[in-house]
Amino acid sequence: MAAARTVLLTGSNRGIGLELVKQLLGSPRPPAWIFATCRDPEGPRAQELRDLASKHPNLVLVKLDVENPSAITDAAKVVEGKLDGMGLNLLINNAGIYTPTASLETVDAEDMVRTYKTNAVGPMLMAQAFLPLLKKAAQDSKEKGLSCSKAAIINISTILGSIKKTPDSFFRPVISYRCSKADLTVDTSVRGLLSVLPILSEKHSGTLLNWEGKAIPW
Ligand SMILES: NC(=O)c1ccc[n+]([C@@H]2O[C@H](COP(=O)([O-])OP(=O)(O)OC[C@H]3O[C@@H](n4cnc5c(N)ncnc54)[C@H](OP(=O)(O)O)[C@@H]3O)[C@@H](O)[C@H]2O)c1
Questions:
Q1: What is the pLDDT of residue 72?
Q2: Which of 41, 95, 110, 134 has the most CB atoms around its CB within 10 Å?
């Protein structure tokens, strides 16, 4: 289990993000601070997160829309204040959107731009805004080399982002894709993710890994 003391996640009110929060809280050495960010921490979609926060004082809910640059810098200030001089060990860029019906015939500019803003520009802005806190954690750590317990950014991607694997998936009907995803439960996926994080080091920087830590070709 990764021994990151301070962790921040995006898109943590449901799906993989929420399960990451639950499994981090339930881990043998839970982080001192988990910053669970989501678009609407006061709204109905964050009820489960709020219930968890009421039981776990190390869980802090932070409002953050990765499409909104000023919301990202505002969130970084809130987190910096809460950390009170500590750095951030681990930033997990998890928030993402997916339009299953978007084929070449139906995709439009609006969907393309919005998806790019959320899935590609968002993680870049997050890395930029939280870099000072990640650097602080790296400077304060005695550990050598890169690791998730020292300072790291993990971008949750997908095999569908692999150019080499495109022929394997692009022509597959959406229905089989959806069925194949149903084989892997969120619980299993997150257990896999959290067992991969502690083994990451310099040699993994910039690589695309699956939930079991196996390399996927770009
Ligand atoms: N599920 C899979 O099988 C699978 C496979 C490979 C990769 N992934 C990747 O894993 C990540 C999580 O997937 P998931 O299946 O858990 O997705 P999900 O259930 O659809 O949840 C997506 C999360 O992202 C949040 N989000 C969307 N746009 C956002 C924005 N602009 N700002 C902040 N948060 C935003 C959503 O918040 P709201 O509730 O506010 O919409 C939600 O919390 C994604 O990056 C996805 O590409 C998933």
A1: 98
A2: 95
The string of pLDDT tens digits covering residues 118-160 is 988 999 999 999 999 999 999 999 999 999 999 999 999 887 7
The residue whose CB lies within 8 Å of the most ligand 1 atoms, and thus the one to mutate among 22, 37, 38, is 38
Residue 169 pLDDT > 70: no
pLDDT at residue 170, as a whole number: 61
What is the CATH number assigned to the segment(s) 6-204?
A: 3.40.50.720
Instruction: Tell me which residues are annotated as active site.
Output: 157, 177, 181
Phi, psi of 36 (to 5 degrees): -95, 105
Centroid of ligand 1 to alpha carbon of 83 (angstroms): 26
Query: 94 C-alpha to center of ligand 1: Å?
Result: 6
pLDDT at 175 over 80: no
Mutational test site, ligand 1, from 9, 10, 16, 114, max ligand atoms within 8 Å of CB: 16
